[in-house]
Amino acid sequence: MHTLSESTLDAAHALSDTYLPAGEPWLHQLKHGQTMRIVDLEGNQAVDTIFYNADDNEESYSVTDTLLRQGGIYLSTGSVLYSNRGRPMLTIVADTCGRHDTLGGACAAESNTVRYAHQKKFMHSCRDNYLLALAHADIGLGKRDLVPNVNFFMNVPVTEDGKLTFEDGLSAPGKYVELRAEMDVWVLVSNCPQLNNPCNAYNPTPVRFVIWDAKEEHHV
User: Where does the DUF1989 domain lie (predicted)?
Assistant: First the structure.
């Protein structure tokens, strides 16, 4: 699924503009109707993201509901991200990359050992980032609440025999994806620190989050 579309939203009119260093976590509450742009500043950086209903943390992003509803495995413009209760959480309203993964999952100490080598267990991982961000925020979410995530800008093709392969990303410096919140959501991000596969060209880089209030309109 490659549905490229640009946004006319102007960063000069944004509500907030956040720079997230390479490999770092981030937690933010996005209000219903607000739009968030995720910018891949240097290219091929995987942005591992989970969404939760800010009013009921038991409702979270669901990969199965999302993929079944749209009938495809990649996310791009027009994709609606559904919750585990079958409700729309966010809609992708603009995208200059064209493909985002929601099957590859987030790196963890356990997966690093299985995929790469036992000595990789202690490398920084997205799962660690998630847990650190939630522990500092103290919003009632923890380890048991982690669910399969979206990997923005990550390229994980599925082979004919059903295997996942981690390939070079399709993104490039300045590519972005924009999402409109269909409810108040927590946005939990790990700006992936992975050094063992080409999802981020073996070189984690910073990303940017630009948020507009609901009154700003799209003309896409």
Answer: 20-185
Q: Is residue 3 part of a domain?
A: no
Phi, psi at residue 179, to the nearest 5°? Answer: -125, 135
The domain total for the chain is 1
Check pLDDT > 60 for residue 100: yes
pLDDT computed for residue 61 by the predictor: 97
Cα–Cα distance for residue pair 208/19, rounded to 1 Å: 5
Residue pair 128/109 in contact (Cβ under 8 Å)? The answer is yes
218 occurs within a structural domain? no
**Which residue do the tokens 């004919």 mark?**
160
pLDDT computed for residue 107 by the predictor: 67
Q: What is the pLDDT of residue 118?
A: 44
Domain with 47, as residue range(s), is: 14-212
| pLDDT exceeds cutoff 50 at 35 | yes
Q: Nearest-CA neighbor of 139 among 209, 59, 54, 61? A: 54
pLDDT at residue 113, as a whole number? 47
* Spatial separation of the C-alpha atoms in residues 211 and 217, rounded to whole Å: 12
